[in-house]
Amino acid sequence: MTTVVLSSTDLTLRPWEPGDADALAALADDENLRRWTSHRVAGPQDAVRWIATQEAGWKSGKRLSFAILMTGRVVGHVVLKRSGGEARGEVGYWTGASARGLGVASRAVELLTSWAFDTRTGAGLSRLELIHDTGNPASCRVAQKTGYTLESVLPPRTPHEAEGHLHARERGTVRLP
After folding, report:
1. How far apart are CA 115 and CA 66, in angstroms?
2. How confident is the model at residue 111 (pLDDT cuts 50, 70, 90)?
3. What pLDDT is recorded for position 43?
4. Which position among 68, 90, 109, 120 has the lowest Cβ density within 10 Å, counted as fewest Cβ atoms?
5. By the 8 A CB rule, do 22 and 47 touch?
6. What DSSP assignment string belongs to 142-172?
7. What pLDDT is recorded for position 44?
8. What is residue 82's three-state secondary structure?
9. How far apart, in whole angstroms, are the C-alpha atoms of residue 166 and residue 177?
C-alpha cells in the first residue's frame, strides 16, 4: 500500500515512523489514556515495538494507523481497522493530554472518515463503526460531532471490562455541523 498522508489546516495524519518512539512513549505515559483504551506502551523501547506493529498493519492493509500531528508535533493516534474484503471498517483514536479539549480527535476522525469513504483516492469503504466505553462521554461527543450515529450498546468484551457504544456512519451520510 502506498504511503497515505492526510492534512487539514493545522492537522496532519501520517503513518507512525520509528522516529516517533520517544513522543509516543511520552504520550502513552498518561493515566487517562490507559483508562479508556487498550493502548499500552511502556517506554521508548516498547514504543519502537508498537510502531513496528503499526507498520505491519499497513503492509497487511488490515490496520492503517496514523500519528496525529498538530503544528508538526505528535499529539495522538487514529486508526482504520479493516477485516477481510469487506467494504466496512472500524475507526479508533486517542489523543495525548496536551491535545484534549481542542477538537483534535474530532478533526482527525473526520479526516480519516472522509478518506476512508473516498472511492477515488481513499479506501472506498461504505460503512465505518466507532466503538467506545459507555463511561467515556468525550468519545461519545467525538462520534456525534463527526456524524456517527449511536446504534447500540455492546456488552463488555475483552480487553474492555465495560459496556460499549457502537456508533456507525455510512458513506454518503451528510454530517451535520
Report:
1. 12
2. very high
3. 77
4. 120
5. yes
6. HHHHTTPEEEEEEPPBTTB-S-EEEEEEETT
7. 83
8. strand
9. 21
